[in-house]
DNA sequence: AAGGCTATGCTTATCGGTGAATATTTTCAT
DNA sequence: ATGAAAATATTCACCGATAAGCATAGCCTT
């Protein structure tokens, strides 16, 4: 299971070390995709396969558009012998990654954030204890 | 699996480099066909066979029309020793290809778009974050 | 036969990806 | 606390992919 928060650095070639605790869950190659809040989202092959089948099962014009969106916004990544992956330039740009990034485990996927963006996001008032408590209550947790 | 988005240029002779990550999946020769939404669609021989069978299995007037469209609008292409293919003039014209094109992986086929047309297509309101989040929820991501 | 056209291939430059080597930091067991 | 091992950071050198321009060969036209 992918959980935790890790602070890492991109090297000058745009590579980043994957937290060693994540490597077994992710596998040697995984799928990196553009996430919803200006972050990158990495799925193990198994996770991605499930999603892919769902997408391929859809029919109609909207389905074609969704397929184009999700498949075009993803790329296969391979972890090298030193535990690193290259974040392609397009993806670095999309997520606004500087040198310092944060790698976050979200149970079934791993997210990569620019450090500043992550810290800003975590300051969101919706994440204060009271709000968290409210949300939990609404969801019956 | 064909995924990702690559920005390439046609040379003055109408040739374009196929992303190196796609070459294994596509094979040395593939089938280029006119796609839906003013793009070109490239299938590996295997994928094309599947598509062909699907088309041949259909009955009725619409089916006849689709068969004429897709079979007349397809041609075999060969990747040269430098990883390029010639896009015949008719196809360049059909998809409105200028110098800058985008090559998109859509899981089972590869699409070639004029850069401007692709960017316009991807601005569709149905692809705003809220819609995407809905779609992801439905698809179990 | 000469000139020009087209298709194809070759060459070079640039950029990004890859792999190795080493340094540094962290973790863990003793 | 200390040392060993693992994880992460950093740098360098090399290789491969792409872009662009040029060269060659075959073919058509005149």
Question: How does this model look, in words?
Answer:
Two copies of one chain form a homodimer. Chain A is of the alpha+beta class. Chain A has six helices and eight strands, in the order ββαββααββαββαα. The first copy, chain A, has helices at residues 20-26, 45-57, 61-72, 89-94, 115-122, 129-138; strands at 2-9, 15-17, 29-34, 40-44, 74-78, 84-86, 100-107, 110-114. Chain A has a six-stranded antiparallel sheet. In chain A, a hairpin with a 5-residue loop joins β3 (29-34) and β4 (40-44). The first copy, chain A, starts with a strand and ends with a helix. Chains A and B meet through α2, α3 and β5 of A and β1, β7 and α6 of B. Chain A binds a DNA duplex (30 and 30 nucleotides) through residues 8-9, 11-15, 17, 19-20, 80-84, 86, 88-89.
Question: How is the quaternary structure best described?
Answer: homodimer
Number of strands of chain A: 8
Q: How much strand content do the residues of chain A show?
A: 25-35%
Query: What would the principal axes of the Cα set say about the shape of chain A?
Result: globular
Give the gist of this structure:
Chain A is an alpha+beta fold and 141 residues long.
Q: What structural keywords apply?
A:
homodimer, 141 residues, alpha+beta, 6-stranded antiparallel β-sheet, two-stranded antiparallel sheet, 8 strands, 40% helix, 30% strand, DNA-binding
Please describe the topology of this protein:
Two copies of one chain form a homodimer.
Chain A: E1 2-9, E2 15-17, H1 20-26, E3 29-34, E4 40-44, H2 45-57, H3 61-72, E5 74-78, E6 84-86, H4 89-94, E7 100-107, E8 110-114, H5 115-122, H6 129-138
Antiparallel strand pairs in A: 1-7, 2-6, 3-4, 3-5, 4-8, 7-8
The structure holds a DNA duplex (30 and 30 nucleotides).
């Amino acid at each position: 299971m992918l959980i935790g928060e890790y602070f890492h650095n991109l090297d000058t070639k745009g590579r980043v070390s994957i937290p060693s605790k994540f490597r077994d869950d992710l596998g040697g190659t995984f799928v990196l995709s553009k996430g919803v809040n200006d972050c990158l989202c990495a799925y193990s092959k198994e996770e991605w396969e499930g999603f892919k089948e769902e997408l391929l099962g859809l029919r109609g014009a909207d389905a074609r558009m969704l397929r184009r969106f999700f498949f075009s916004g993803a790329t296969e990544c391979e972890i090298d012998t030193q535990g690193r992956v290259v974040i392609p330039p397009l993806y670095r740009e999309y997520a606004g990654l500087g040198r310092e990034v944060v790698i976050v485990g979200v149970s079934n996927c791993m997210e990569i954030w620019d450090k500043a963006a992550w810290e800003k996001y975590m300051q969101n008032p919706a994440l204060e204890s009271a709000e968290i408590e409210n949300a939990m209550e609404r969801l019956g947790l």
